[in-house]
């Protein structure tokens, strides 16, 4: 590879000088942020239409749909009709639902006779804790696997890591859960098989196996993306320039390779959040955890549609919002992406 | 059998190293073929009916009578595994076919016509991307009831945008190729070129991607049955088998859960190897 290091370093310095000038608060930057937020609002609005009007796809009258499997006593019918405004035109029902949803009011649960928000609120801590613990595991294991593989690319350690990741990628979370329960909970007795525990420490202890089961598939995703992104950066000219400038290898890796490789990793982590929330339904069911995932399954089972609607909307919102945050923070981590975006 | 058995072994031994991936590929194809044949000819392959109960062997280990042992109700695991392959493979197959047809048509429309159709479809895909496939399937079950039908339809819709986005990118690149212009000059209609010439050209790459999707869908549908929302007992299904075996696992009987779990992992690995090999051979991917 012919490399004129002088032009490259000049170009790099120019780019570096350019970045702050194109600062986050330039007109283009503000327009970009506004555009992203508008897209976010539109996507969420369309998603809410889908979540709300899906009920109208079911043939038959809405009262009997909502009261499936329950005794349709006249009082119950009157109560459900009044509560959901089922005698109003559909668009007005939607506006009522949306208005409530925006203020955190998703109606009343049919199985618990409590507000949906209360039911979800009770279950949310377990799921959040699970997702956070899993996220930490994914970050540590996935990133280090990817970095180690990339720095040893082509060598046995790289191949070993790749084979390991490929094997892990074929283990769905319910299989992982069962295997972990069988080995570490039943056979060795190190961890509990069931429940989410009392108090913080106990909860962490109860969530060790579930968070591992949840992390498996996503470790593979982060590991593979980290590796390929790092490998791509390692072959870049600016890395050669940095090395030829006599910088320490650790510094080159940290400041020139890893930092530049972060973009794709961040993009993946945006997808990860929704993935974790959805996959936690399976893990929570396997470990008998009282989180929103198991609540979702239970609500489907007990025909409690308002709770299903609320949880689906929450997960979709989390996905869209996290992706928007990733999009918006990208220029802060990688100024080139802002320059590229405003040039478009 | 007329072919002497050593032939295959000798062939494998003599195969040059470069064909090592092909060997893995052949094994993967073999796994899928065996599973498919077992599913199709389940009543002839399985030693017992899937719900035949043997009270003398409850949670029994492997034996001559029950090769893979029995579950907590004394049902033969091998027989249930063989019959379970039917729903396990049929569901993903339908989803892959459905999502490929929907996705290719919409992707062709968006990539070929461009303009506002492309913009509108792009927004629709964006919204659908926000619904993870398993979540959409669970919502479909909440609306239309448990079983295989609602999740299969929901998953077909959930996977269609992935196919559509790939098709769109390929079609957009294809549209600028000289052969398209040549057909136009000869007076062929746009729709004819799109369906008869462009679509066949993008099909192999999309097909390879859809093969990879098969593995994901299989795992997700099995997960749905594991949650008790998919295929319902007494129909034997791998995910449902693991679900039913959960209480046994707590009691130390791992086999009834491990057997279907291994089957799921095996098929997913095999399908992924086939899909990756196919996309390598086609050498496709989204042109930049």
Automatic annotation (TrEMBL), chain B:
It comes from the Bacteria. The chain crosses the membrane at residues 23-46, 89-112, 124-142, 148-167, 214-233, 253-274. It is a multi-pass membrane protein. Coiled coil: none annotated. Its main location: membrane. The keyword Nucleotide-binding does not apply. It is found in: Cell membrane. The keyword Cell inner membrane does not apply. Keywords: Cell membrane, Membrane, Transmembrane, Transmembrane helix, Transport. Residues 89-275 form the ABC transmembrane type-1 domain. PANTHER family: OLIGOPEPTIDE TRANSPORT SYSTEM PERMEASE PROTEIN APPC (PTHR43386), PEPTIDE ABC TRANSPORTER PERMEASE PROTEIN (PTHR43386:SF25). Belongs to the binding-protein-dependent transport system permease family. This is ABC transporter permease. It comes from Agromyces soli.
């Amino acid at each position: 590879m012919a490399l004129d290091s002088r032009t490259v370093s000049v170009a790099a310095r120019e780019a570096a000088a350019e970045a702050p000038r194109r600062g986050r608060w330039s007109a283009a930057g503000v327009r970009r942020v506004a555009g992203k937020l508008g897209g976010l609002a539109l996507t969420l609005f369309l998603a809410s239409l889908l979540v709300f009007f899906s009920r109208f796809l079911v043939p038959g009258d809405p009262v009997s749909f909502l009261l499936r499997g329950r005794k349709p006593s006249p009082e119950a019918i009157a109560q459900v009709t009044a509560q959901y405004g089922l005698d109003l035109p559909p668009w007005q029902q939607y506006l009522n639902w949306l208005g409530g949803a925006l203020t955190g009011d998703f109606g009343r649960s049919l199985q618990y006779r409590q507000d949906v928000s209360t039911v979800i609120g009770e279950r949310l801590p377990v799921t959040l804790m699970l997702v956070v613990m899993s996220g930490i595991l994914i970050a540590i294991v996935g990133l280090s696997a990817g970095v180690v593989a990339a720095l040893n690319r082509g060598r046995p350690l790289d191949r070993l890591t790749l084979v390991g990741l490929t094997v892990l990628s074929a283990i769905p979370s319910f299989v992982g859960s069962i295997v972990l329960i069988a080995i570490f909970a039943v056979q060795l007795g190190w961890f509990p098989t069931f429940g989410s525990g009392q108090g913080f420490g106990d909860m962490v202890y109860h969530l060790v196996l579930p968070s591992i089961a949840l992390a498996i598939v996503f470790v593979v995703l982060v590991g593979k993306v980290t590796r390929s992104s790092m490998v791509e950066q390692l072959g870049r000219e600016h890395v050669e320039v940095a090395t030829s400038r006599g910088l320490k290898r650790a510094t080159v890796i940290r400041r020139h390779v890893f930092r530049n490789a972060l973009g794709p990793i961040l993009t993946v982590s945006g997808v990860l959040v929704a993935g974790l929330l959805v996959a936690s339904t399976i893990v929570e069911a396997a470990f008998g955890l009282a989180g929103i995932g198991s609540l979702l399954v239970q609500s489907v089972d007990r025909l409690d549609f308002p709770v299903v609607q609320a949880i689906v909307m929450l997960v979709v919102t989390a996905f869209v919002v996290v992706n928007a945050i990733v999009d918006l923070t990208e220029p802060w981590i990688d100024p080139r992406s802002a320059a590229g975006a405003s040039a478009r | 059998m007329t072919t002497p058995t050593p032939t295959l072994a000798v062939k494998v031994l003599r195969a040059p190293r470069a064909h090592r991936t092909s060997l893995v590929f052949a094994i993967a194809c073999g796994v899928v073929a065996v599973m498919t044949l077992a599913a199709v000819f389940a009543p002839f392959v399985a030693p017992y009916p899937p719900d035949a109960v043997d009270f003398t062997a409850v949670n029994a280990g492997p034996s001559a009578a029950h090769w893979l042992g029995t579950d907590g109700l004394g049902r033969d695991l091998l027989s249930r595994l063989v019959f379970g392959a039917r729903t396990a493979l049929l569901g993903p197959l339908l989803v892959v076919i459905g999502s490929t047809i929907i996705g290719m048509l919409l992707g062709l429309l968006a990539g070929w016509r461009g303009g506002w159709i492309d913009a509108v479809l792009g927004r629709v895909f964006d919204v659908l991307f926000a619904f993870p496939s398993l979540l959409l399937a669970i919502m479909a079950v909440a609306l239309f009831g448990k079983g295989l039908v609602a999740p299969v339809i929901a998953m077909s819709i959930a996977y269609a945008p992935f196919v559509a986005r790939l098709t769109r990118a390929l079609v957009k690149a294809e549209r600028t190729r000289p052969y398209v212009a040549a057909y136009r000059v000869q007076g062929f209609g746009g729709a004819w070129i799109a369906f008869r010439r462009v679509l066949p050209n993008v099909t192999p790459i999309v097909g390879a991607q859809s093969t990879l999707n098969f593995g994901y869908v299989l795992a997700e549908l099995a997960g749905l049955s594991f949650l008790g929302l998919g295929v319902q007992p007494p129909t034997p299904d791998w995910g449902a088998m693991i679900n039913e075996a959960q209480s046994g696992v707590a009691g130390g009987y791992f086999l009834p859960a491990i057997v279907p779990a291994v089957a799921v992992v095996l098929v997913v690995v095999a399908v992924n190897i086939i899909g990756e090999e196919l996309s390598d051979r086609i050498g496709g991917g989204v042109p930049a």
